[in-house]
Design brief:
Strand order of the largest sheet: 2-1-3-4-5
CATH topology: Rossmann fold
Number of strands: 5
Structural class: alpha/beta
Shape: globular
CATH architecture: 3-Layer(aba) Sandwich
Radius of gyration: 34 Å
Order of helices and strands: HEHHEHEHHEHHEHH
Number of domains: 1
Number of helices: 10
Length: 251
């Protein structure tokens, strides 16, 4: 009798132990989701934006002797759109062939512009040189134009890009001058002043002058008028401006 009772107790002990182990197995797995893969972190999507671009300048900005979509501001706008198609990129150009710094200042003042531009480019000065205006005039008015550009760029200088003056001495028109080397030297002087000023003011300065100085070797860089840059030349301008423009429009 005692022996049977002892055997019953032994069997009961092992049954209880088996049930306990089974419960532990279930409990250890109960915290795992049905799908063991981690839940992906939700990342906020940047909303689409309307990017406003303002191009200030002269014939090199309006694109004298090339099509409307060939000038560098339009090529730049399209490239920006290609890089970020969810955004809308609109452009406005204030530029006319023959304008000096004085003309550009007057044109800006004559318009009621809303200071909401995400990007402003400035390319000006060649007609100051071509018209033999005092260099001191450029020294005085270029900073004024920079300040106007910053104000229009939401007051943020990081949204402003200055483009150097092309060298028309390296065109068939420039070669008809009695002293083409003088043209180049004076344009160097203008660009050196602008670049130094931009460096001191922490404003982006993009040099494209060397591209235009290949115009005699590669006539495809010159428009049909024998003076202004071609669509191809402007595309090279954009290659250099684009990285800076991307940063500005993401600012």
């Amino acid at each position: 009798m005692k022996k049977n009772l002892f055997n019953i107790m032994i069997v009961a002990f092992w049954l209880l132990l088996a049930v306990s182990c089974s419960d532990e197995t279930v409990n250890s797995n109960s915290s795992l989701p049905e799908n063991a893969n981690p839940i992906p972190t939700t990342t906020s999507q940047t909303p689409a934006k309307n990017i406003n671009y303002l191009a200030l300048g002269d014939s090199y900005t309006i694109g004298q002797s090339v099509c409307e979509t060939c000038r560098f501001p339009e090529q730049l706008r399209k490239k920006l759109g290609d890089l970020n198609p969810k955004n809308t990129y609109t452009s406005k150009i204030i530029a006319t062939t023959g304008w000096t710094t004085t003309n550009l200042i007057s044109a800006i003042n004559a318009q009621s512009l809303t200071p909401n531009y995400d990007l402003v480019t400035l390319l000006i000065g060649v007609n100051n040189q071509y018209q033999n205006l005092p260099f001191q005039l450029y020294q005085y008015e270029f900073p004024l134009l920079i300040n106007k550009a910053i104000a229009l760029a939401k007051g943020d200088k990081l949204n402003v890009i200055v483009v150097s003056i092309p060298d028309y001495a390296y065109t068939s028109f420039g070669q008809r001058s009695s002293n083409s080397s003088k043209i180049s030297a004076e344009i160097d002087n203008y660009n050196a002043f602008a670049q130094k000023y931009c460096l001191e003011q922490n404003i982006e300065f993009v040099s494209i002058t060397d591209i235009t100085r290949q115009g005699l070797q590669n006539t495809k860089l010159v428009a049909s008028d024998g003076l202004h840059p071609s669509e191809l030349a402007y595309s090279y301008f954009v290659e250099r401006i684009l990285p800076k423009a991307v940063i500005a429009t993401q600012n």
